[in-house]
Design goal:
alpha+beta, Ribosomal Protein S8, Chain: A, domain 1, 2 domains, 5-stranded antiparallel β-sheet, 3 helices, 8 strands
Length: 132
């Protein structure tokens, strides 16, 4: 897992858990990771998530979603902004992922949200990742 980029590490752990056919993935908890997973749950890419553990050591347990044929609900994920090269977009430059079939997740001045919500509110921000 990447220590300098915790969001990329979380996406890799989810991808690896899907490839192994696991039902859950566990990642260290942070507020930004929890918000990204909350958006992925709301958009139907993961089944659920819970925060486990005590005050000092929390884990984020992510329940992965599969189709009836055990195909992952997440076909792909890509980290766009990274610590070495931040990627910022204006509200008019927010990308459509697979013609609207995927989502872009942004960190804006009013919180973490999907690209569709950011366009509706006419705000831009840091393009964290795309999921399809």
């Amino acid at each position: 897992m990447s220590w300098s980029d915790p969001i990329a590490g979380m996406l890799v752990q989810i991808r690896n858990a899907h490839m192994a056919g696991l039902d859950t993935a566990e990642v260290p908890h942070s507020k930004i990771k929890a918000e990204v997973i909350r958006i992925m749950k709301r958009e139907g890419f993961v089944s659920d998530f819970v925060v486990e553990g005590g005050v000092s050591k929390k884990l984020l347990r992510i329940y992965l979603k599969y189709t009836g044929e055990r195909e992952p609900a997440i076909r792909g994920m890509q980290r766009k902004s990274r610590p070495g090269l931040r990627s910022y977009v204006a509200s008019g430059e927010i990308p459509r992922v697979l013609g609207g079939m995927g989502i872009a997740i942004l960190s804006t001045s009013i919180g973490i949200m999907t690209g569709k919500e950011a366009k509706k509110r006419n705000v831009g921000g840091e393009l964290l990742c795309v999921v399809w």
